[in-house]
Amino acid sequence: MAHRFNHPKPITTNGMGAVVTTTAPPAGTAAEQFALRRRSPLQRIQHLLHSRPAISPFLVLIISFVVFATINPRFASPNSLSLVLQQVAVIGALAVGQTLVILTAGIDLSVGAITILSMMVAAKVAEGHGVPGVVAVLIGIGLGLAGGALNGALVTRIGLPPFIVTLGTLSVFTAVGLLYTRGQSVQATDLPDLLNWTGESFAVGRFRITVGVVLVAVLYILVGFALANTAWGRHVYAVGDDKEAARLAGIRVDRVLLSAYLVAGGIYGLTAWILIGRAGAASPNAITDANLESITAVVIGGTSLFGGRGAVLGTLLGALIVGFFRSGLSLAGVDDQYRVLAVGLLVLVAVAVDQWIRRVKA
Predict the structure, then answer these.
(1) Number of Cβ atoms within 10 Å of the Cβ of 135
(2) What is the predicted pLDDT for the residue at 31?
(3) Where are the transmembrane segments (predicted)?
């Protein structure tokens, strides 16, 4: 007759001599500890970067700061650093929206087109129709929301790939903007004070910070909190990691995707306001490289192009890295073409590191 044996529980005695039964640690814990001890130093780094995507861009930012400050001490001056912050504010804001889309395993090539359309319409209605500044800003944000909603609807309702959808709407939004404005710019002197307000600067110690930079900082805090501490944020990560698994878990995948594009569009509309203050005018030829630069900031910041992994903190670091490289190489006297080359190499290295991190094994 076969007998069933149970693993005995470890017994100990307390100070009074009584028998006390204790529970043995789960086998899985011991196995995990054993596997951890067997990992090589390189594998431990791989696991660390997988669980903390912002570490690698933070290290690159620190190293680049030290190198450029050593080459030219002017780089570390408050004036130079203030200028870098002002320069990366627009791209940094756009990169927040791009991060939301990429976290869902999508991509948005219409970033710049939506922003320019929102900016030009807000400026034109204020200049030509006497619309108050508050209303003009709301119209610009509303157009951004509409552009994001259109992208999201085409992706979720019709099932088109995000790359194709945003490539098409890139041309549509650009053409609409040019037709509406007839290719004409609107100068800051013709705009209400509120539209130019984001370009006003104030002193913070030895630094000069613009209102636009403050708005971008608040934007990062709000979106970062939403992604890390709300059910919506967890759903965004789940959809990007595995749509089918998210659907089986009861997540309404299409609604999450649509909301990501919608929020991103609203961010682009807000960025249009920041851009007016930064440029001192509303021009249809502004931020011509915004699409690639926003993607560059996101990728360098450690967000995976395959979705499901990343954070807006990394995106902020990525935008600062690009700003540091351009400013630092400029102060070092490096030709502009080599600056573009350096940023391109950064993107390739970031994607290669992302691929390596994704192959992490438990």
Answers:
(1) 15
(2) 53
(3) 54-71, 91-122, 134-154, 160-180, 209-228, 256-276, 297-325, 337-357
